């Protein structure tokens, strides 16, 4: 099977984007003051690392003419090989933007924008998917990115003092009056 150069190029973009996200989330976890925010960014960094390993392994498989492999298989093989994360991250526009305005609100806003772009990217790739395995893997990525977006929007609500986080009240108006 000949490698599909377009999908290899798209996987290369995804790989670089996930690396940027990984380093950004690690940086944000250190910079933000909100404990929930720290936990969220640490969790997202771990998930991005898995995405990097999976995308790297799938890209290798496609480049070598073997086609797409499933997410779990790619993750197992990616973890086993310890391949995926470069030693040097290079330029990271997300971190540069955070360094200019090191607030929790800005960190979450940048993260939301990044995840919205990821949702758009994987949605587009899914529409172009040709094989069932490709569709399943891309759907998996898309749903994970949507989950990241939902968590970040909850954090934005919390930071915005709407009184809610994950749809639960963080404080009671009655208690505020006492």
Short description:
The chain is 75% helix and 2% strand. It is mainly alpha-helical. The longest helix has 29 residues, at 35-63.
List its traits.
single chain; 178 residues; mainly alpha; Ferritin; two-stranded antiparallel ribbon; 75% helix
Question: Please, could you describe this protein's structure?
Answer:
By secondary structure, the protein is mainly α. The chain has a single domain, classed as Ferritin, core subunit, four-helix bundle (Ferritin, Up-down Bundle), CATH 1.20.1260. Helix content is 75%, strand content 2%. The chain contains 7 helices and 2 strands. The protein has a two-stranded antiparallel ribbon. Helix 1 packs antiparallel against helix 5. The chain is elongated and about 50 Å long.
Rg, please? 18 Å
Across the major sheet, the strand order is: 1-2
Label the structural class.
mainly alpha
- Specify the helix fraction band: over 70%
According to DSSP, the number of beta strands is 2
CATH architecture descriptor? Up-down Bundle
Shape: elongated
Largest sheet: 2 strands, antiparallel
Quickly count the helices: 7
Proportion of β residues? under 5%
Q: For the record, what CATH class applies? A: Mainly Alpha
Using the coordinates shown, work out and report the CATH topology.
Ferritin
> Superfamily at the CATH H level?
Ferritin, core subunit, four-helix bundle
Terminus-to-terminus distance: 71 Å
